[in-house]
């Protein structure tokens, strides 16, 4: 993808973002009539500026792209061969793992989701030894639980049902 | 006065219990602050009940000591992991992390510590010597002045966005929009909460910055982790390098002043101080140097770390001389004073001079001791960079999650952090100036609510911004700074054309 | 190989989890409390409600013999904490410490009213006063005169919006028939600085936080929002004396989910009464000027009181929002 294409996409997303928020701005109803400047004024200013800048961006990219075309000097993307898993690049897989971890946090609690996450991600990122991965994930989880939930008395997410009950044994 | 200070110093050093408290404060502050998710406020809140049975001087050596040390120690994880350990260290990630990645973690930490100590010591001296005068300055600031200050900070966006001004402006606007989410602080109206009660109090700065900077960096690095680990040759840790000091001394002087002045304003805080100081530093740099910010410029680290430590001490000014808590930690300290049967305020200096000077002495010593104890700490910490990423990366993710969660024990904040992680990952590939978003989020509440508050105070008279001397001055300065580059750019163009012609 | 070990690990955990779940069943109320209790506080660390919760729980821990963690969940003046407490099981191990419960219910931001929560006990009925710079106004008559002469231009600061502070200023304006301009400040710090620095004409504040400023003479109370004069300030007129029916203040107490075992509620109520009567708690109240009015109310009284307040504030909220 060349730079101009990326710019188009970026500015379009900014516009969509701004229009979406602009559409939901009228819903902000001042519950308090006595104020001189209401709560919706500032968002309106920001969003209108944002749309204006988005348009400017698209137009200026258009002009630039026309100039560029004659030169056809598009820098090569740094496309190093990437290792892939199930046709997905590693960052995408890692991201999915992180998302699953975060979603699980509220279901099976910090203790179990963290151990599973650490175990999975260390292997994904290239740790060869099974034992290292298992020990690392358990020890890390224990350290975090002791530090935050026992010493600092911050109850980390417990999860629901049996997982909640179980976490109560530890903190 | 000097004899009070000397007796204060002696009180800290000779009393074994006080000495133990000071060492405990340094240890707790150092490690606690370095761990993302443990903030200075939290540590002080936890320690207050512990100190209930102590003598007042030991209690306050411990509490203010922790407070002073955590103002610095958040920088450690900001530099090494790109995850700010405390909110005060948010801005330190901008240049600290890139410098560490260039193979100079020791140097980055060294600059951070040296600048923190300078900022902290000068801040303490100001607190000790000119508190009443500073308190009067703080009192002359109100909504219009706060707004003018925020405007001055926002005009720096041009310098922060490099060559892509349109993108930089969009970044700031996004940041400002993020800060409008939640309950409007003036009317209590809900804005963009979409029915979620978790969004009532808005999106906090910490999930945004941890997502944009730390989690996105993790995602980026996962590709590299398979490549052969390039071992960073350890540069010797030097706390003081004369060449670097020469470069950053101007920045340090300016940042100390900004830090103290912003710090004394109630409700503004060290994070905003370091953001403003960073923007000014970028603005005052030479044109060709501006590109190097965000890529490991030592001045960037110096600006942030000098200012936040100076501001941390500045926050104590209204607390001790007026009895007004300038921030969350100051409010907890105020509670601690009450717990020990004292009321902070002008009378405290005359009723409890020994205690006051013992506290000042403890702050001075804590700041100076930081220089000495830091060397072994840094030696250990900088090795973190050499830990294989398959181990370090996952740890950072858990830190991201906990660091976000503990801000207000909110699960939704973790989800917000992940969303910003994805946004940051994409935007960084696109070479977007991420710092502009943070600028918007930090200054957003200040800009909007103080503007509206000022108009409310004047019953709808917009001239309030121009009839008050401080506010007018600040606005004129920001207008000059905004248009100066444009005008001087025009001049240069014309000159060039003339020469060519 | 990798997956096998992972699978074994997972099943071991599941097994552990299963065992854990079953052993917890049984008659819970008899041996309550068996483990740590969490008190959710909807305000940041260091604020009035947070300090109140911490002061009570540190005594309550000794009486109940378990750890009690105060968990700060800032947001919407306590709404977030109430929401999270509502989502937690009704086993009696999650309590809410709140000051603005009737208010958030009345304003409609808190969806969970008395149907979902039962008040356990009230500890404090904090007292407001109207504070000014003594150089500006010398008496409440002066102040009201100034407000009559400059309608809508006299600014009164308070912290936050649609909270107790704003309600108080609004009601004061109604009762005294003057047009006051309420300014929602960021926090106590910039509000105090606003009054001393002359940017605000007055503020509504409780006695504890204003005490330091009062001691050095930078602020002065004009009127106290209570029925009777205070022993500590015998010369300070009250609102009721002026013919204003306005004595509200922050009422701090604890709440629990309504479907919790009634026995658990009475265990907590008794333990809290013991805290309230303890010397340590009394000392804390006196240091912070919280003893000006009798605070204690048991579950029944507090429930009734909360009901009345919700009704009263619903009317006020409607008027304030101009519906």
List its traits.
heterotrimer; A: 171 residues; mainly alpha; two-stranded antiparallel sheet; 5 helices; 2% strand; flat; C: 323 residues; alpha/beta; D-Maltodextrin-Binding Protein, domain 2; 2 domains; 5-stranded mixed β-sheet; 11 helices; globular
Can you walk me through this structure?
The complex is a heterotrimer of chains A (171), B (501) and C (323). With 171 residues, chain A is an all-alpha fold. Chain A is built from five helices and two strands. Chain A has a two-stranded antiparallel sheet. Chain B has 501 residues and is mostly helical. Chain B starts with a helix and ends with a helix. With 323 residues, chain C is of the alpha/beta class. Chain C has two domains: 34-126 and 250-320, Bordetella uptake gene, domain 1 (D-Maltodextrin-Binding Protein, domain 2, 3-Layer(aba) Sandwich), CATH 3.40.190; 128-242, 3-Layer(aba) Sandwich (D-Maltodextrin-Binding Protein, domain 2), CATH 3.40.190. In chain C, the strands form two sheets. In chain C, strands 2-1-3-10-4 form a five-stranded mixed sheet, sandwiched between helices. A five-stranded mixed sheet of chain C has the order 7-6-8-5-9, with helices on both faces. The model of chain C is unreliable at 9-26 (pLDDT under 50). Chains in contact: A-B, A-C, B-C. The interface between B and C is large, with 52 and 53 residues. Chain B: It holds the Pfam family TctA. Chain B: Residues 19-439 form the DUF112 domain. Chain B: This is Tripartite tricarboxylate transporter TctA family protein. Chain B: Keywords: Membrane, Transmembrane, Transmembrane helix.
